[in-house]
Amino acid sequence: MAYSDLTIMVDERDDLFYTRAALQAHRPGEGRITVQPTPTSGSPAALAHDMLYGLGKRLAPGPNSADVWLDSVNAAWLAAAAWGVATGVRHVVVPRAHLLTIRRIDQLLAWRELTGTQLTLLWQKAPRALPPVLGRVERRISGRDQFEALLTEPGPIPARPSFPPVPSTAGPAAAAVAAGQSPAPRPRETRAASLRPGRPAPPCTGALATAQLVQAAPALEITSEEAASLAALAHPLIAGALSVLAFTRAGLGSLRSTRDLDITGDVSAIKLHGVGHRYCPLHAVPAWARPLLAGARAHHRLTGRPPGDSVFAPVMLAEARHLRAHAGRLPRLDLTRPADILVP
User: Fold this and answer.
1) 297 by DSSP, 3-state: which?
2) Which residues of 191-208 are buried (b: 16+ CB within 10 A; e: fewer)?
3) What contacts 24+ positions apart, CB below 8 Å, involve 50-55?
4) How many CB atoms lie within 10 A of CB 12?
5) Other C-beta atoms lying within 10 Å of the C-beta of residue 181
6) 3-state SS of 10-36?
7) Minimum mean pLDDT among 14-28, 182-196, 296-310: which range?
8) Structure pTM?
9) Phi, psi at residue 189, to the nearest 5°?
10) Residue 27 pairs with which residues in a beta bridge?
11) What confidence tier does 154 reach under pLDDT thresholds 50, 70, 90?
12) CA–centroid distance for 324 within its chain
């Protein structure tokens, strides 16, 4: 059975069967989540927060929390879109959609357009109450058999980026890699050539080209509790940045120059940069951190920023107070260290 990207399940009698089936269908590992709207919440970003919760993310509580910037509607929905894309969510089920305002229905539809995810709304009210934006939806179903079939079908392939490597403009090594050739060996790729006074630093190769020349440094270990705390962070840039600091123990300043092209296509390695690119080590990304860096990269790409821009620049503003506020989740992570990578 083939379904359109938007399906409305009409449950005029508000049968408990459909709500139970929707809740049981929540299986993130299979690319399907159920998002339960928070009733009577007046926060403009409330539904985006519900989406983040369905994606396994938890906002820090309190009016002055480290996640206060996710009270912004655009920031919250962008974070939810990045996580949805990075984790391969392909089907979202929303019970009790008849309680949503027109504005929040519009937000859901915009999120679906951005992520390419299949969306199913349970309209547990008479269909004549459907707003015009939903009344025009062609795919409308009713009945237990149809709903169960919808929840068990694999669904569409999501518009999930494969994170292809971005071409680097850093010279013959990158060109050789792009052409599928073995680049000529160089003695110390992670150190830039000597610079004459007044000369700008040469462009630094991305992670793909560097990985052909040097072996990535192994990731430092963290506890499973620390990894779980990082995975639950709501903002993908915060989660990605802190994960890098956790498995590299690099200084906070090392994130300022991290570009999209400094992360390999399979998110298995990341390249960090020192001042003047005098020391730019390549680090292996542990399995637990790959979804977090994938979320950060998805966030970067969804904003339409070029691959040469810093991925983490938005969280480095105002002395990186959002990063520092969340760093308490990792007691061993010291963000007071010198800002630059030191040459060993």
Assistant:
1) helix
2) ebeeeeeeeeeeebbbbb
3) 51/77, 51/80, 51/84, 51/92, 51/111, 52/76, 52/79, 52/80, 52/83, 52/234, 54/26, 54/92, 55/28, 55/80, 55/83, 55/84, 55/87, 55/89
4) 14
5) 11
6) ECCCCCHHHHHHHHHCCEHHHCEEECC
7) 182-196
8) 0.82
9) -65, -30
10) 32
11) low
12) 20
List 141's β-bridge partners, or say none.
9
Nearest to 222 by CA among 288, 314, 144, 300: 288
Q: Which two tokens stand for residue 117?
A: 């995810």
Position 42, amino acid: G
Distance CA 45, CA 77 (A): 8
Are 245 and 265 in contact, with CB atoms under 8 Å apart?
no
For residue 58, the one-letter residue type is R
- CA-based nearest residue to 329, from 251, 263, 234: 234
**Residue owning tokens 């494969």:** 162
- The half-sphere exposure of 207 on its side-chain side, counting CA atoms within 13 A, is 28
